[in-house]
Here is the input.
Amino acid sequence: MGKLETMKERYDQITIPEELNFRIQQEIQKSRNQQEEKRRSDSSHRLKRVIHSVEAAAAAICILFTAALNTSPVFAKEAGQLPVIGGLARILTFRSYETEKDDIAVSVEIPTIEMITEDTGIPVDEINQEILALCNQYADEALVRAEEYRSAYMETGGTPEEWAEHKIKITVGYEIKKQNNDYLSFVVRGTENWTNANNELKYYNLDLRTGKMVTLKDLLGSDYVELVNESIKEQIAERQKSGEVFFTAEEGGFAGISEDTKFYINENNRPVIVYEQYEIAPGSSGEITFEITGGN
Amino acid sequence: MKQIFYERLIQYILENQDRFYRVAYSYTRNQEDALDVVQSAVCKALEAHESVKNADAIKTWFYRILINECLAVLKKRKRILLTSDNPGREEVYYEKSYEQDDDLEKELDRLELDVQGIIKLRFFEELSLKEISCITGLNLNTVKTKLYRGLKQLKENIQEADIWGN
Here is the structure.
């Protein structure tokens, strides 16, 4: 019955609407929130019963704790790692997985922002949704590219063993740059280890006080363009003195920042401008960063 | 333990969502309905995850929920068809499905719903007869009988359609 095979073929070709993943994510998020609520109400019931008996003790611990925070730097540092004390929000790994097929390794770690304080007005869901879509899309597209690479390799006489030697790897992950009560700054990064052409980086700089994405203008004032350009030119000149190579203007080197210039916020709450590998200097220099001091 | 199953369920859903959609679409032949079906199946599965006793049966358990959602939509549609005085509905239901000639799919849709389901699960989703028996709640022999009878009928219908077509 060849007709069944035709049917199966057509069945497999049913187009999957993009909306599907979004709707499923929605359901999962909804369910996760419910679970979280349930857990919280369970534990708060339990807590209430206990609290009566140990109220005095708890108060004493509280005082001790505050005193220790103010006196011991080590203690303060450790307390910073306790999530509730650390800030209004934090970055967590929402989902991570590793797969391997046809000797193409895929490693994905998707971050998500979790609000610790409710009602901050920050559109966390939207941002999380965007991050998730970004990560999934990158992983999917990179896999297609890797498969194309593989078939091209095989068609031109490569053997599976030789292909395996390539140790092809797709990595999607994130790095937290700054996480405190004021800012949440992190980068989501997708890379393929056989080429740099498709690397994708997206920086998120969230101002927890306003609930908005921070812009360079917010951080440096309305003259930020001149300020940053000046600073970067100075830093380039200085680094050139110590032997670093940058592209000239004709070679496509640094030509001033724009609205989409990438940056993150560092430990000192300063913006750091980022240029990807090859953007303004030879590949050997890798990623280039400029911390901008001054401004507001 | 429950927590682990919950995470595994989410993982399973995320990894197989395309398959769920195809199943739903093969029943509803309509994007909106198929999306609704998958979404509500996911919702129900997540709500009921604590009631699952055998964590290894995640696949057949989820398919059962999914198929039930599909059937529920078809039932609702039938009710609308019977009660509404808008006869255009049926046309939408069939014609919008596939771009090419969709005779084969139409023939499949003409079979009884449970037989249709068995054929789809067996040949499109490539599940084992045993899994299908778990999903449908029918015993293994019944599944077999229905499958072979369905295939025979399908063959006859298609030949008939060919005769009329040529």
